[in-house]
Amino acid sequence: MERISNLILIDSDTRRRATISHVLSTDNIHVEPFENISELAGAWPRSGVVLIHDQPGAIHDLVEAMAHHGEWFPIVAFDEQPGTTKIVQAVLDGAIDYLVWPVSGDELSATLRCSIERAAEVGNAKLREVMARTRIDRLTRREREVLSGVASGLSNRLIGEKLSISPRTVEIHRANMLNKLGANHTSDAIRIAIEASIVS
């Protein structure tokens, strides 16, 4: 199993940050503690596993920050007595594992090591998905509809008929859509749409 050299800890609770840092120091894991994602963004690490306290929107914001930096770190979320819905949402937002705090040092270390292995499989794909979704978010509703039509293999005329607009208007939306996505060709736009999971 790959060794963890760096743990990026994000938690606004000072006492808990200190406790986790102490627990992991006995296993020779270097912990970089941060109070929040803004503080992390000011000192972006080169590598590591993120252990983040699961507060509302925290994982989503962290994933957005990683997309902005173009780097993906495996995310392990934790909270005290989380419900099933909260854990599922954390995974949907991008966490690859979840811990219920408090947790023993051995369990924490084992979970982090497993996360590194799992991250090697899903990390790059997740980063591509997040970056693609960030691009898709720039589109207007109409541009998304045109992208959906393009991804379905429809011509400008058929897209126009479906949306009750002229083929020329479709062309304009299509050009704007390609520009906003940073796509040189229609095939690039379709790939971005697939990576963002808005078409299959």
Automatic annotation (TrEMBL):
Gene Ontology terms for molecular function: DNA binding
Xref: InterPro entries: CheY-like_superfamily, Sig_transdc_resp-reg_C-effctor, Tscrpt_reg_LuxR_C, WH-like_DNA-bd_sf
Every HTH luxR-type domain range: 132-197
CDD domains per UniProt: LuxR_C_like
Domain of life, source organism: Bacteria
Keywords: DNA-binding, Transcription, Transcription regulation
One Gene Ontology biological process: regulation of DNA-templated transcription
UniProt-recorded name of the protein: LuxR family transcriptional regulator
Organism from which the protein derives: Novosphingobium malaysiense
